[in-house]
Design goal:
This protein is α+β, with helices and mostly antiparallel strands and 300 residues long. The chain is 31% helix and 27% strand. Helix 8 packs across helix 9. The mean pLDDT is 86.
């Protein structure tokens, strides 16, 4: 008779105030809007160990720049920086080679500037991230909204509502809501560094997706880009009432930001290319595009 394998127990432990936060990504979430448009995205998840306060953020990508910006937002939201942050072995944190794991230089510099130590999960020991694993319920919380939203902006608002609900409900572990315990934990968090350090890590190019109508969304209004960028992610930069739109490092369009009441802003050449797929006669195309744009402006 084979001897039974011994099972190692994992004793419960509590994290001291301000000691640790844990970071994870909810990756490759897929939802559809009411019109059937597919949205593929990731959600950054940050959780303070003592208060269980969570911060979620919608992201199209999971680059190191995304991670830096999300961490800064989390520090601002929670009122400070913990002494250490526990990460999974994500590529934006560590370089893995024949000699083992090594924290990359940019991440090391970020941690030094913001005053926290980097802790890595032990491979194949998911229990070291026990508290953040509870936040993996996020996917089950957002799935009921499949085909219940109309736009990326509404999807972001749904995530904010889920975030608020999680932080205001009573925690089974503490019998207190995370938002109340955060008030105590804030006293033990280190302050966010000065604005010059924070600004040096922020990418001022806002990233947005181009929709099927060849429009992007910016501050309540929509602006056109060439048709070939539909379903791609572009970057926005604003300077002196001009909206610069880039694909990668290429400047693809510039719009004037003049009328806040003008909700839809097509450049004629962008609209003409869209319509040319449906109207082959060039004379008809010119007239129809001109009339449609006038009606659109009058309607809005």
């Amino acid at each position: 008779m084979r001897p039974e394998k011994s099972v190692k127990g994992h004793p419960r432990f509590e994290t001291l105030e301000g000691l640790q936060a844990q970071v994870d990504w909810k990756e490759d979430i897929k939802l559809y809007s009411k019109t059937g448009e597919k949205f593929e995205f990731n959600v950054f998840s940050y959780k303070l160990g003592y208060s269980r306060y969570c911060y979620f953020e919608y992201r199209k990508e999971k680059t190191q720049q995304d991670l830096f910006e999300c961490l800064i937002s989390a520090f601002k939201q929670t009122g400070g920086v913990p002494k250490e942050i526990l990460f999974d072995n994500m590529g934006t944190i560590v370089d893995i080679n024949g000699t083992g794991r090594k924290i990359n230089n940019k991440m090391r510099a970020f941690a030094k500037d913001f005053g926290f130590k980097i802790k890595l999960c032990k491979p194949a020991h998911s229990y070291t991230k026990g508290k953040i694993e509870l936040a993996n319920k996020f996917v089950s919380w957002i799935l009921p909204y499949d085909r219940e939203f109309e736009s990326e902006e509404e999807l972001k608002e749904i995530i904010k509502r889920i975030n608020y609900k999680v932080n205001t409900q009573i925690s089974q572990a503490t019998n207190v809501s995370p938002i109340l315990l955060l008030q105590k934990e804030k006293e033990y968090l280190s302050p966010v560094p000065n604005v010059n350090i924070v600004e040096s890590y922020l990418d001022h190019h806002l990233k947005v997706k181009v929709h099927k109508d060849s429009l992007i969304y910016y501050k309540g209004n929509r602006y056109s880009v060439p048709e070939k960028y539909i379903n791609k992610t572009v970057s926005l930069k604003v300077k002196e009432n001009l909206l610069y739109i880039y694909y990668s490092t290429e400047l693809i369009t510039v719009h004037k930001i003049i009328e806040e009441t003008k909700k839809i802003n097509y450049l004629p050449e962008h609209y003409k290319i869209l319509m040319s797929k449906h109207i082959k006669n060039k004379e008809e195309l010119e007239e129809i595009c001109s009339n449609n744009l006038k009606r659109l402006n009058n309607l809005l």
